[in-house]
Write a structure and sequence with these properties.
By secondary structure, the chain is α+β, with helices and mostly antiparallel strands. It has 3 domains: about 90 residues, Rossmann fold (3-Layer(aba) Sandwich), CATH 3.40.50.20; about 60 residues, ATP-grasp fold, A domain (Dna Ligase, domain 1); about 100 residues, D-amino Acid Aminotransferase, Chain A, domain 1. The protein contains 9 helices and 16 strands. Helix 1 packs across helix 9.
């Protein structure tokens, strides 16, 4: 197969591993800087240009679109889909997962366990929002935040109210969620590929930090997850429509709850924690599924 990977930094561990896994299996993989693509949105003849030349025909495209370039990255991916190139994850599915509010609403619609989550526009409704979320301690999240950035733990209702009013004062959208104290600063990331959990790790936050992101100094180890946790991870991926994703969950007293579904999960932490060849399994999935024009949405909204 001839595969395109949309990624801005070819030297990242995840991108190098996927390229290596593809080439070991006899495929050709080109890493294409998403922001250097430009498109001819012609009726019935969609084209993508890169560094002054029209891109060749690819069998599949692997989107590794950074959160900061989601809008343009999805536009490029839709163009590939319109050209009949099979995407590892479809543009519509990535768009769902990147919108924290929409993703929570879709998970709730499908009956998947979540922390109590509230959302409001008017700062005058702050006290009602705090009551709905069960009162402090509470987690306050920027809708656009990634890798633990823009996530605040408020220990008291007064501090929660101050943080919410500060965020609303600069006109940013936030979610307010119950704090799952019993998780003890740890979470679980399950890697789902093709409707199956192929690896799972437990992440623990750095000393004194309730966030468990590895980018923020957290640590990871392999973990055996329960059948219920395995099922909820697969259902969350299906809710988003993602073929490959990292599903982040917490162990609450009433069962597992989903925190986020990541459409471009990093491979370094989970491969090193588990010893599983995740990159190879992603390429194997493409080998089985990539067919011209198989995209469900074909670049539609």
């Amino acid at each position: 197969m001839k595969i395109a990977m949309l990624a801005r930094n070819p030297s990242l561990y995840s991108h190098e591993r996927i390229k290596e896994a593809a080439e070991v299996r006899g495929h050709e993989l080109d890493i294409i800087n998403t922001l250097r693509c430009y498109m001819n949105i012609a009726s019935r003849r969609p084209q993508i240009y890169y560094n002054g030349e029209q891109l060749p025909t690819y069998d599949a495209v692997i989107p590794r679109i950074g959160a900061s370039v989601t809008f343009y990255g999805l536009a490029v991916l839709r163009q590939f889909e319109m050209m009949g190139v099979y995407p590892l994850n479809e543009s519509v599915a990535i768009g769902r997962s990147r919108d924290k509010l929409r993703s929570m609403q879709l998970l709730a619609r499908d009956g998947i366990g979540l922390p109590v989550t509230t959302f409001a526009h008017d700062p005058k409704q702050t006290e009602e929002v705090l009551k709905l979320a069960g009162g402090a301690p509470l987690v306050i999240k920027l809708l656009e935040g990634t890798q633990g950035i823009g996530v605040v733990l408020a220990d008291t209702d007064r501090s929660a109210k101050s943080v919410i009013e500060a965020f609303r004062g600069v006109r940013v959208n936030i979610l307010v969620q119950e704090f799952i104290k019993e998780s003890g600063g740890t979470d679980i990331r399950a890697l789902v590929v093709g409707g199956k959990v192929i690896a799972a790790m437990q992440r623990t936050g750095a000393e004194g930090d309730f966030r468990s992101n590895l980018h923020r100094g957290g640590s990871a180890k392999q973990i055996r997850i329960s059948p219920e946790e395995r099922s909820i991870a697969v259902r969350a991926a299906k809710s988003m429509g993602l073929n490959v994703c990292g599903v982040d969950m917490l162990r609450a007293n009433h069962g597992p709850v989903i925190m986020e579904v990541n459409s471009s999960p990093g491979l370094e932490g989970v491969e090193k924690a588990t010893g599983i060849d995740i990159a190879g399994k992603i390429i194997e999935f493409l080998e089985k599924t990539a067919k011209p024009g198989k995209t469900k949405t074909k670049g539609k909204g």
